[in-house]
Each structure stands twice: as structure tokens, then as C-alpha cells.
């Protein structure tokens, strides 16, 4: 495994530019300007209209602003997770009434993928509540990946921490994306989970990159973190080299029985600001509205699209929390004049990768202040 690394631009580039006018990925896959936490806090503090204008400008430079990708997420193994993530109803540490299930049969997963495709999804994500999968678990999962790809869908899985050989096996099966979120900033992380370190997460992301799999990595806001800690999460993501191809931004869904029940909700405009800043700092990424979208009214969702979100989880269930129904999503997109299309992601320079993939190094455990 290669050493975690990050490229740092000279002090007279975007690092010193507190209004963040410079594009941190002026040459994709090349030397990049490092986003300081202070730079991202400065973005949060911009007047709302100025921030939205800048995010929309960035979005239009890299994407058709009137298209989104529809992704469907299926929980293929629910509950019984050994981790103690404070937000998660699937943890064995929390009494949420959720019953643990075994891994779904391959044929049932493929049937669900067909329904997702028929409903317009172009990416099918499969999530299993494990700390880390055992090698025996990978055989049926590889069959799922092959079957879903045969339908013409992009494939994504989230299985917890991976060993190097496991990431390689998933790549050989044809996996397109691996999801492994950072959840929050390094400074706030200890308030949310104690059974897995921040470095554990970065190590898994590095193994995924080394295997030649695209990275899907984001976090959760509304956990009780401060604005600076939200900025710290964005800095971690934006300083990855390259930054993730997909960036899911989750708004905490409070589930009775988890330690975060009763946490004060994030201000809706602060959530939109987070979407906008993700777009500005990671201009080529697919920025996805993920968990918590059911709690958003249509106007707030529309504002998120204006801020640069160009992917949504689509369907009737998002792991163990509900998601707006597919028909309501279709009607909203139609009213906004937004088309559902496959990912438009611009290819990064892969000249330095022996796998011929969008390959790079992950960020260190802490971004500069």
C-alpha cells in the first residue's frame, strides 16, 4: 500500500486566497491547491446569494445544470453491525427495534435492481451493515455486482472496511464505485464513533483507490457539529488526491433509540451552503442529496439543485430510513425542468495509474487550519 499523500500548492495560490476564487483542480489529476479549513469557513460566511452564484457558475463549467443522476440504494444486509456510530439504527449498541437480517439472496437483489432500472435509476448501490466483510461474503456480492452490471447499471457497494485483497476482488468483479464515508471532521469524529478510527476509514479509501475503483465518499451534517467542523469535513474530502468521484451529503435522520435523538437540526440554509461548498471545492464530483431528503420540502430540494447537487437517491427506501417516493421525485424534477440522465462525470487524467483508472492518493487524517 502506498503512503497517504496530498499535494500542496505554493502559498501564493488558492491557499492564500481566502475568498477561494481559484479552482483547486485547475488541472485535474495534477498538482492541486490545498483547501484550508479557514478558506472553507470563509466560503460559509459569504452572503448566501454570492455563494449560490459561485456554486452555480462552477456547476455549469463542468456539468449540464439541468440534469441529475438517479441512484437507488438497497440494504442487502440489515442490522447487527458491531460499530457504535451514534447516528445509526443498525448498530448493535443501540436499541432501535431493528431486526438483524442475513445477506439477501442474489436473485432477490437482481430483481430489485431491475425494478430500479425500470424506474429510471442508472446507478444501483448495495449496502451491508458490517464492520468489515468476511471473505466468504464476497462471493455472492461479486455475483450481485456482475448481475447488476449486466443490466447496464453502474454498481456501487458499501460493506465497511476492506482489506487489500478484498478491494482487488471487487474490482475484478467489475465494481464501479465503493462507498465509505468519513462521516464528519477529524476533530468531531470522536463524538460520533469509538469503534473505528478516522485513519481506518482513510486506509480503506486508499485500498479502494489502489484497486482501481472509483470512490464514493461524503459525510453527515446535523450531528451537532459546529460550522468549523463542517468545514473540516469538506476540507478532508476536497484535499483527497483526487477528490471522490461521488460525494454524498447526508442530513441526519434522527432515529429513536440512537444517541443523537433530540439533536438540534441543522438550519436549512446551512445545509444548502454545505452543498454549494462541496460543489465549489470538488467541481467535477457528483454531489448527491442522500439521507434526510424526505425531511426537505420541494423548495429546499430545488435550492440544493441550484447549489450544485446533481445526483439523488431515488426510490422508496434508503437503507433503514425512508426516502421520497419515486413518483413524487419524478414530478418534482419535471416541474423544475430537470432531466434524469446517467452520470456526466468528466474523466480525470489517469496517465499515472497502472490500472488505467482515476487513481490517486487519499487525504491525511487532518486538513490544515
From TrEMBL:
<dbReference type="InterPro" id="IPR007197">
    <property type="entry name" value="rSAM"/>
</dbReference>
<dbReference type="GO" id="GO:0004076">
    <property type="term" value="F:biotin synthase activity"/>
</dbReference>
<dbReference type="GO" id="GO:0051539">
    <property type="term" value="F:4 iron, 4 sulfur cluster binding"/>
</dbReference>
<keyword id="KW-0949">S-adenosyl-L-methionine</keyword>
<protein>
    <recommendedName>
        <fullName>Biotin synthase</fullName>
        <ecNumber>2.8.1.6</ecNumber>
    </recommendedName>
</protein>
<feature type="domain" description="Radical SAM core">
    <location>
        <begin position="66"/>
        <end position="293"/>
    </location>
</feature>
<dbReference type="InterPro" id="IPR058240">
    <property type="entry name" value="rSAM_sf"/>
</dbReference>
<dbReference type="GO" id="GO:0009102">
    <property type="term" value="P:biotin biosynthetic process"/>
</dbReference>
<dbReference type="Pfam" id="PF04055">
    <property type="entry name" value="Radical_SAM"/>
</dbReference>
<feature type="binding site">
    <location>
        <position position="85"/>
    </location>
    <ligand>
        <name>[4Fe-4S] cluster</name>
    </ligand>
</feature>
<keyword id="KW-0408">Iron</keyword>
<comment type="subunit">
    <text>Homodimer.</text>
</comment>
<dbReference type="Pfam" id="PF06968">
    <property type="entry name" value="BATS"/>
</dbReference>
<dbReference type="InterPro" id="IPR002684">
    <property type="entry name" value="Biotin_synth/BioAB"/>
</dbReference>
<feature type="binding site">
    <location>
        <position position="156"/>
    </location>
    <ligand>
        <name>[2Fe-2S] cluster</name>
    </ligand>
</feature>
<keyword id="KW-0411">Iron-sulfur</keyword>
<keyword id="KW-0004">4Fe-4S</keyword>
<keyword id="KW-0808">Transferase</keyword>
<dbReference type="InterPro" id="IPR013785">
    <property type="entry name" value="Aldolase_TIM"/>
</dbReference>
<feature type="binding site">
    <location>
        <position position="88"/>
    </location>
    <ligand>
        <name>[4Fe-4S] cluster</name>
    </ligand>
</feature>
<dbReference type="GO" id="GO:0051537">
    <property type="term" value="F:2 iron, 2 sulfur cluster binding"/>
</dbReference>
<feature type="binding site">
    <location>
        <position position="288"/>
    </location>
    <ligand>
        <name>[2Fe-2S] cluster</name>
    </ligand>
</feature>
<comment type="similarity">
    <text>Belongs to the radical SAM superfamily. Biotin synthase family.</text>
</comment>
<dbReference type="InterPro" id="IPR006638">
    <property type="entry name" value="Elp3/MiaA/NifB-like_rSAM"/>
</dbReference>
<comment type="function">
    <text>Catalyzes the conversion of dethiobiotin (DTB) to biotin by the insertion of a sulfur atom into dethiobiotin via a radical-based mechanism.</text>
</comment>
<feature type="binding site">
    <location>
        <position position="125"/>
    </location>
    <ligand>
        <name>[2Fe-2S] cluster</name>
    </ligand>
</feature>
<keyword id="KW-0479">Metal-binding</keyword>
<keyword id="KW-0001">2Fe-2S</keyword>
<dbReference type="GO" id="GO:0005506">
    <property type="term" value="F:iron ion binding"/>
</dbReference>
<feature type="binding site">
    <location>
        <position position="216"/>
    </location>
    <ligand>
        <name>[2Fe-2S] cluster</name>
    </ligand>
</feature>
<feature type="binding site">
    <location>
        <position position="81"/>
    </location>
    <ligand>
        <name>[4Fe-4S] cluster</name>
    </ligand>
</feature>
<comment type="pathway">
    <text>Cofactor biosynthesis; biotin biosynthesis; biotin from 7,8-diaminononanoate: step 2/2.</text>
</comment>
<dbReference type="InterPro" id="IPR024177">
    <property type="entry name" value="Biotin_synthase"/>
</dbReference>
<dbReference type="InterPro" id="IPR010722">
    <property type="entry name" value="BATS_dom"/>
</dbReference>
<keyword id="KW-0093">Biotin biosynthesis</keyword>
Amino acid at each position: 500500500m502506498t503512503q497517504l499523500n496530498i499535494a500542496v500548492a505554493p502559498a501564493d495560490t488558492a491557499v492564500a486566497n481566502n475568498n477561494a476564487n481559484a479552482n483547486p483542480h485547475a488541472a485535474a489529476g495534477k498538482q492541486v491547491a490545498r483547501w484550508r479549513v479557514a478558506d472553507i469557513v470563509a466560503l460559509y460566511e459569504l452572503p448566501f446569494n454570492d455563494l449560490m452564484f459561485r456554486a452555480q457558475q462552477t456547476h455549469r463549467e463542468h456539468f449540464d445544470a439541468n440534469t441529475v443522476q438517479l441512484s437507488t440504494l438497497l440494504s442487502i444486509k440489515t442490522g447487527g453491525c458491531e460499530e457504535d456510530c451514534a447516528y445509526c439504527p443498525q448498530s448493535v449498541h443501540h436499541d432501535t427495534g431493528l431486526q438483524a437480517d442475513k445477506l439477501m439472496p442474489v436473485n432477490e437483489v437482481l430483481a430489485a435492481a431491475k425494478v430500479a432500472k425500470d424506474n429510471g435509476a442508472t446507478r444501483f448501490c448495495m449496502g451491508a451493515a458490517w464492520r468489515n466483510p468476511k471473505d466468504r461474503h464476497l462471493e455472492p456480492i461479486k455475483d450481485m455486482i456482475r448481475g447488476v452490471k449486466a443490466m447496464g447499471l453502474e454498481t456501487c457497494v458499501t460493506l465497511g472496511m476492506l482489506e487489500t485483497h478484498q478491494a482487488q476482488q471487487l474490482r475484478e468483479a467489475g465494481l464501479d464505485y465503493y462507498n465509505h464515508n468519513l462521516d464528519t471532521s477529524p476533530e468531531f469524529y470522536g463524538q460520533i464513533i469509538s469503534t473505528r478510527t478516522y485513519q481506518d476509514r482513510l486506509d480503506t479509501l486508499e485500498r479502494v483507490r489502489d484497486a482501481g475503483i472509483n470512490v464514493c465518499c461524503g459525510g453527515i451534517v446535523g450531528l451537532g457539529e459546529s460550522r468549523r467542523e463542517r468545514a473540516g469535513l469538506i476540507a478532508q474530502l476536497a484535499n483527497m488526491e483526487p477528490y471522490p468521484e461521488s460525494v454524498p451529503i447526508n442530513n441526519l435522520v434522527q432515529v429513536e433509540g440512537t444517541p443523537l435523538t433530540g439533536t438540534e437540526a441543522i438550519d436549512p440554509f446551512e445545509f444548502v451552503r454545505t452543498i454549494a461548498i462541496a460543489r465549489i471545492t470538488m467541481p467535477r464530483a457528483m454531489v448527491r442529496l442522500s439521507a434526510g431528503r424526505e425531511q426537505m420540502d420541494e423548495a429546499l430540494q430545488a435550492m440544493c439543485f441550484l447549489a450544485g447537487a446533481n445526483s439523488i437517491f431515488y426510490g422508496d427506501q434508503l437503507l433503514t430510513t425512508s426516502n421520497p417516493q419515486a413518483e413524487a421525485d419524478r414530478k418534482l424534477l419535471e416541474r423544475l425542468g430537470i432531466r434524469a440522465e446517467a452520470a456526466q462525470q468528466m474523466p480525470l487524467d489517469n496517465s499515472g495509474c497502472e490500472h488505467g483508472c482515476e487513481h490517486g492518493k487519499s487525504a491525511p487524517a487532518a486538513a490544515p487550519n
